Amino acid sequence: MNLPDSYRVMGLNPGAPLEEVHRAYKRLVLKYHPDRSHGGARSHRIFCRLTEAYARLQAAFAAHEAPHPLPFCQRCGDAGRLFRATDGRLCCADCLLARRRKRLPMPRPQTVRCLATIGLDLAAMFCLVFAVKDASLFSAVLGLFSLLAALMTLSYDVLTSVVVAR
């Protein structure tokens, strides 16, 4: 069950605060509890949906740890990390990527930085192999400078990398 459905089942407007969710849940549970109401299977189904919706909303509030209204994906209703789409709506990463499956994704900046280091390493190896083969001092010096540039690029990448903890 997604967030908009959870709000709808509880009879609340999307973005209602946690206190209002608690009040609505208590009121509706007392009304539809199978032991209190004699609706039989219907009240049991409604009670189960209410409990599921309440658990979903509680988990969403706990994940954000905020009493303010929760934003949610306007395509699938997920309350994870959201991004603004080209049409201005808030969407999760899954919904954004699902629309662009036909196109190849752009490489991340970290990938491009790694490719630069690998390219410099390959150039250094080529120059050093050429220097050994032809006994060329110029190729050996060029290979050593390429190797140093690759090591400096790699150390810069390591020093400026960001570690994200979940």
Number of helices: 6
The shape is rod-shaped
β-sheet strand percentage: under 5%
Spatial strand order of the main sheet = 1-2
Question: Cα distance, first to last residue?
Answer: 24 Å
CATH top level class name of the largest domain = Mainly Alpha
The biggest sheet, with number of strands, parallel, antiparallel or mixed sense and barrel status, is: 2 strands, antiparallel
Examine the secondary-structure arrangement and name the CATH architecture of the largest domain.
Answer: Orthogonal Bundle
- Succession of helices and strands: HHHEEHHH
| Strand count | 2
CATH third-tier fold name of the largest domain: Helix Hairpins
Notes on the protein architecture:
- This protein has 166 residues and is mostly helical.
- The protein has two domains: 3-99, DnaJ domain (Helix Hairpins), CATH 1.10.287; 109-160.
- The chain contains six helices and two strands; from the N terminus they run H-H-H-E-E-H-H-H.
- Strands 1-2 form a two-stranded antiparallel sheet.
- Helix 2 (18-32) packs antiparallel against helix 3 (41-64) and helix 5 (109-134) runs antiparallel to helix 6 (137-160).
- The chain is rod-shaped.
Please describe the structure with a list of short key phrases separated by commas or semicolons.
mainly alpha, 2 strands, Helix Hairpins
What's the structural blueprint in terms of helices and strands?
Elements: H1 3-10, H2 18-32, H3 41-64, E1 82-84, E2 90-92, H4 93-99, H5 109-134, H6 137-160
Antiparallel strand pairs: 1-2
